[in-house]
Amino acid sequence: MDWGTFVTHQLPIMLVVIVGVPAVLVGYIVGTELLVRRLPDALRPRVRPWIWVGPALLFVFGFLVLPAFGTFKASLENNSGQFVGLHNYQVQLSDFPSGGSWIAIRNNAYWLVLYTLFVLAFGLLLAVLFDRVKYETIVKSLIFMPMAISSVALGVIWKFMYWYQPPGVTQTGTLNAFLGLFHQDPRIWIQDPSIDNFAIIGAAVWGITGFAMVILSAALKGIPGELLEAARVDGAGEITIFRRVIFPLMMPTVVVVGTTLVIFALKAFDVVYVMTGGNFETDVLANRMYKLLFFSGNNGAAAAVAMILLAAVVPVLIFNLRQFRAVEARR
Amino acid sequence: MAACGGNNTTTSGGKIGGSVDFLVVWSGSELDSIKAVLQPWEDQTGVTVNYESTRDQDAVLTTRVQAGNPPDIASAPSPTLLSKFAGQGKVVALDSILDMSKLKSEYPQAWIDLGTVNGKLDELYSWGSLKGLVFYDPKNFQAKSYTVPTSWSDLMTLQQKIKSDGTTPWCIGLESGAASGWPGSDWVKEIVLSSAGPSVYDSWWQGKTKWTSTDIKSAWTTWGQVLGSGNANVYGGKNFMVSTNFGDAGNGLFDSPPKCFMHNQGSFITDFFVKAKPSLQPGQDFSFFPLPDINSKYAGSHVVSGDTVSIFKDTPQSRSLVKYLASAEAQDIWVKRGGKIAINNKVAVSDYPDPISQLIAKSIVAAKISKYDAGDLMPADMKNAYWSAVLQFVQDQSKLDSILTSLDKVQSTAYTT
Fold this sequence. Notes:
- The structure holds two protein chains of two kinds.
- Chain A is mainly alpha-helical.
- Chain A has two domains: 85 residues, no CATH class; 237 residues, MetI-like fold.
- Chain A is 73% helix and 0% strand.
- The longest helix of chain A has 35 residues.
- Chain A is globular and about 80 Å long.
- Chain B is α/β, with parallel strands linked by helices.
- In chain B, strands 1, 2, 3, 6, 10, 11 and 12 form a seven-stranded mixed β-sheet that branches. Chain B has a three-stranded antiparallel β-sheet with strand order 8-7-9. Chain B has a two-stranded antiparallel sheet with strand order 4-5.
- In chain B, helix 2 packs antiparallel against helix 16, helix 9 crosses helix 10 and helix 19 packs antiparallel against helix 20.
- Chain B contains 20 helices and twelve strands.
- Chains A and B meet through helix 12 of A and helix 3, helix 12 and helix 19 of B.
C-alpha cells in the first residue's frame, strides 16, 4: 500500500461511496415523489407507502426470501445436485438420542430454556432493584457494558475464566482459583459434558443480561407513579405491588424481550464456536450447520439443519411480531 | 509473458508487474516469514502480492470458489482443502507451468506423487514437516540416566521406569478449538503405519479398511497402553489432556521438576517451545527421537505433513510465483528463519538454524517409508469423526468398541459424496 494507489484508486471509490450512496437515495425519494404527485389524489396515499418500503422489500426478498428457497431446494438434494427427497432430514434426525443432530437439538433446548429464563430473571431483578437506588445510571452502565463486547471476545474471556490447571498447580482460571479457596479440586468447566453446556450458557447470559435489563428498566419507568401510589395508599406491600401492579403492566415487554431471547438462543453460534467448537457434547444447530457446510462440504445436510432451525424460529418470530404490535397498540 | 519454459525465473530478470492475490493461513510471525520469502521475487518481477490471511481457510476459500471469485493462488497447511478443489477441477494443473524434469531432480518423488490428483500435478508442496517425534529434555534424561529407546519395547520399559520413579512419562494436550483431538489422532496413525504397514495405512484412509478391523483396533489399544489405564501415564490425566492446547502441552518438559519426560508431536512444535521459554537452546535443552518402530518389517516409516500451493487463476503472475516457490532459494529463506523444512533437496542442511531442525531435515530424507497424514487425506466428515473419537477414547478407554463402530458408520457414508 502506498499513497499513489490510495489517491488514484481508493480515494475515488471512497468519494463515490460517501457522496454517491446518499445521492442515489435522495434521488430515489425525490424522483418517485415527483411521479406520485402526478397520480390522482385518491391513489396517492395507497401508492406512497409501497414506494418507501419498496427498496427494503427488494433487499429482503433478494437476500433473505430467495436464498431461503434456495436452501430448501438444497436440503432436498445431495452434493451432486440430485434430488434425494427427505434423505438429508432423515440422516439429521436419525439415531435418537445421540446420533444425527440430536445432541445439537438437545443443547438448543437447554439454551432456549436456561438462557431465556436466566436473562429475563436477572434482567427483571436488576431493573427493579436499581430503580430504587441513587447510583442507578452508573450500575446500569456497568451491567450493560458486556453488550459492547463481541461474542467472540466474550467467548475468549470466559475461556480464560474457566481455564484448567491440574490439581496442585496454581490455578490461573478465575473459577478454579475460587474453588481452590475452598480446597476443592479444579474442574474442567467446558470439557466435561455434565457441566459444559451450563458453563457456556452462563457466559452467554453474562453477555446479554444488560440488554434485557435496559429494556425492562425502560418499561418500568413507563409505569405511572400515581398507580403505585394508589396501591400503596390502599395498603399494598412492595412485593404485592410488584406482583399485582408492576409485573402485569410490564408483561408485554417481558414477552417481547423473552421471545427475542428465544431467537438469540436458537441461533446461538459464536460463543460455542469459540469456547469448544461444538466438542464435548456442546454442539448447537447453527454450529453444526457451519461444520457440515464448511468442514464436511456437505451442502444438503447443512441445508437440512438450516431448515430445521428455520422451522423452530418461525413460530417464535410470528409470535414476537404479534406481541410487539400489541405493545405498540397499547401505547 | 516473462520467463516461459524451465529457466529459473528469478534469474531471468523478467519484469511482469501487476499483482497477485495470495490466500494463506499464516498470520503473525509466519506471515512475516512468507512475506520475507516472496520479497526477492516481488523486487525482481515487480509484482505486488496481496496477502489475504485467514485461520478459517475452509470457509473462506470454499465460499470464494463457489462464488466464482477465488484468489489467484492459495496455500494450505494440509492437502485436504486443495485436493477437494483439484478433484472438482477448480485448480490449474502445474505440469505445464513448472519445469517437471527440474522438479523431479530436486524433489523427492513421494512429494510429487502426494500433490498429484487424477494424474496431474495440482498441488505443489513447498515445505514439509515430520510427525511422530518424541521430544525430551536431554538434561532430565541424563539426571535419571534414562536412555533413548530404539525399539517399541524399549519405549514401554522406559515408560514403566519413569512411572516407578514416581514421575509421569508423557505430556499430551488435545485441545485445538474445533479441531480438538487431532494430536491424539497423530499417535494412532503413526502406530497404524508402523505396526500394520503402508498398504493397510493407505486402504485405511481410503475407507477400505474398517475401523473395527484388527489392525486399526490394535493401534488404538497400543496407544491406550501408552496412556496407561485411567491415563495414569499422562500428566494431569484426561482433564489435562482435553483442556490443554496442543501448543502448551509440551512445556511441562522444561519445568523444574519436570511435569513429564516425553512429548510426541510434529516437528513444528519446537517453535512453540522456544516461544514459551525463549531461553531454551535446541539440542541442549530439547532433542527428539523418532517414535520407535513397532514392526521391524516397516522400520523407518514416518507420517509427514506439508504446505501445499495451488493456482486458481492462471495468470503470468501466479505462474511465476509458483515456479519461484518450487525453487530452493525461495524455500531456503524460510528454512533460515526457522520453523520450516524444505522439500527441495537443493537446500543445504547447514542452512537450518539449529541442530534440531538439521536433524529433522535429515530424518525427512532418511525416512524409508513416507506417508501423508492419514487424517488429512480422509474426507472431512471422516477426519472430524476421527478427532472426536480421540476425545471420547481418552475419556473412557473401555468404550473403544462402540467408538470404532460409530467410526465405521461414518466411514460407510463419508466417502460416497
